[in-house]
Write a structure and sequence with these properties.
five-stranded parallel beta sheet; 278 residues; 11 helices
Length: 278
Amino acid sequence: MNLADVDVTLWGEPRRNGPWKGSSSGMSASVVTIIESMSSSETPYSSAHPDSDSSASQRPIRVCIVDDQAMVRQGFGALLDAQSDVSVVGSADDGAEAMALVKRTDPDVVLMDIRMPRLNGLDATREILAMPGERRPRIIILTTFDADEYVFSALRAGASGFLLKDATAEDLVSAVRVVATGEALLSPSITRKLIEDYATRPAPKKLSSTLNALTDRELDVMRQVATGETNAEIASRLFLSEQTVKTHVSRILNKLGLRDRTQVVVEAYESGLVSVGE
């Protein structure tokens, strides 16, 4: 699967044409548009790791669970192992052990708690995603509160999604399957907080040099991705074919070293390419 084909999935929130019911009056119309536009991808589920070859397409999704609470590890493990398309290949109780576990078991998805002894989940996420090699697991952050202070840092570190520990069994299984396909998984409340976080920051005085590698057309596409538009919507707006947009998004990901469209949005705001209110 090409990550350029993937749009951000708003967990449990279908796209709707009306206003965002949970938005605050202080949020600009563009912020609401960004949130509403991050809709579920129509890409069918595949158990293949995004970086895998097609020969692995039929294998179960390999999952590691990292949490310092044995009850969480055992409960999540039992639930996931009961799925015919999922295999729990190991568990760890801290970030340092998680690094060794990932090297040993080569998982597709890691469920990662944030607050753990020795090495916390945020640092472990950075370390795991910095490991050499082409195959890296998708990491879902486990958190007790959607307002967790480390959520945004974990997103910038490369996490592919967030899961509340009180999520339903269906949500847990769905999260693993969605992230395994290469999609990004964000709850509506986390998305709102992410955009609101940027709304409180002063806009950069000049465009970051990190974007120098992009062509003018790629910058145009990146701006539209940052507003939450799908490939089809970008194609219509910029008078391009949808396949051409997918190619541009793929090149943006490769040139900037980003993992998915969620990180494109983060980079667009942090670099000064777009600002809240545009």
